[in-house]
Amino acid sequence: MIINLIPEFLDAVQKPDPVAGYFEHLERHKSVISAYWNNYVVDPFGPNAEKVVEEMVGVPWNSIMDIRQIETLVDDLTELMDILNKTYSIDFPIDIYLSVGAGTVQIAELVENGKGVLVVCLEHFSAQTNPKDIGRRLPWELLRIWVAHGVAHLVRFSSKTSDSEIRNVIAETHGSYDHWEVGSRVTLGELLVNEGLAIAGMKKIEPRKPAHVYLDYGAAAYKRIRRMESFLRRTVQREIDSSGVGYRLRYFTRGSSSASRLIDGRLIPERSGYYLGYRLIERKLGTLDLADALRAAPHELLERAV
C-alpha cells in the first residue's frame, strides 16, 4: 500500500504553531514516523528533537513540493511495485509512506511488528534549493531506483524464506528493525551482502545508469574506490565474520570520521562498503535468480569472493 502523507504534512506546518502542528502529525502516525526518527534522526521525544523540527518546518514546503507531481508518483510507484513483486517474489505486505523527513536518509527501511515499511523522504528529490538546505536535491528520476533499493532490503529483512542474519536479529527484537542494533550484531559480511543485493536490485530495474549512480557516489569518488579495491578486499577478508557497530560507521555511513576509516595507515573513502558489497557478490549473482539471492545466507554469496 502507498500512503501519501505529504498533504497532511503541508497542512500541519501551515498552522499558527507549525512545530506543534508537526508533532500532532507525528502522533497520528506515531508507529511509522517515530520509528523513522529513532532509527535515522534522533529520539523524536528527546531534548534535541524540537530544534530539528524547527528547522524542518521553517522551509517553505508549499513552494517546493509539487502536489500534482506527487500524485503522479503514487501511480508510478504502484506500477513499480507490480514489477518488484514479480522480480523479488515478494511474499509479505509492504507499506510505502511518502513523507518529508529531517534531511537525513532519502529512503528509510523499517520493519514494524513484522511488516515491511518504506519511508520515502521526498525532500531529497526536489531540485529546488531551500533556505535551510534540507535535502540532497537528487534528480526526480532516481526515485524509482532508490525505492527498488529499499524494497530489496525489506525482502532480506522480512521474507519468510530469508536466511539473512538481519532477519534473525529482527525476530529477536520483537519484529521491529533497529538500525544500530542490527549494525552492532550482524557480521560485516551480512552488511556487505545486504547493500550489494540492494544495488543489484537498482540495476535490474534501471540497467543503463552510470555505475557510480547506483552507489550514490560522485564520479571522482567512484574512481578512487575502484583504485583501492584490492586493498579493501584484503582488509575485509580478515574482518568479514566479525561484527560491531564500528563496521557500519567505517564502511556504510555518510559523514563518518576520518579516524573510523583509517586502516593500516590508509584512509578509505566514505561508504566504500556499497561498492565492495556489490563487487564481492557480483560473480554469484550471475548464477542465481535475484529473488533467491535476496534471501540467501551471506556465506552462500560471499563464497570464494574474497
How does this structure look, described?
By secondary structure, the protein is an alpha/beta fold. The protein has two domains: 155 residues, no CATH class; 116 residues, no CATH class. Helices cover 55% and strands 8% of the residues. It contains 17 helices and six strands. The strands form two sheets. It has a four-stranded mixed sheet, sandwiched between helices. The protein is globular, with a radius of gyration of 19 Å.
Q: How are the SSEs placed, and which strands pair?
A:
Layout lengths: L1 E3 L1 H8 L4 H11 L1 H11 L8 H9 L3 H4 L2 H21 L6 E6 L7 E6 L2 E7 L21 H16 L6 H8 L6 H7 L2 H18 L5 H5 L3 H9 L1 H9 L7 H8 L9 E2 L2 E2 L4 H14 L4 H6 L2 H5 L4
Parallel strand pairs: 1-2, 2-4
Antiparallel strand pairs: 3-4, 5-6
- Provide the domain count: 2
Contiguous uncertain segments of 5+ residues:
none
Main β-sheet description: 4 strands, mixed
Count, helices: 17
Broad shape: globular
Structural class: alpha/beta
Spell out the helices and strands N to C: EHHHHHHEEEHHHHHHHHEEHHH
Average per-residue pLDDT, rounded, comes to: 90
What is the number of E strands? 6
Gyration radius (Cα, Å) is: 19 Å
* Through-space gap between termini: 39 Å
Strand order of the largest sheet: 1-2-4-3
Q: What share of the residues does DSSP label as strand, in percent? A: 5-15%
**Helical percent range?**
55-70%
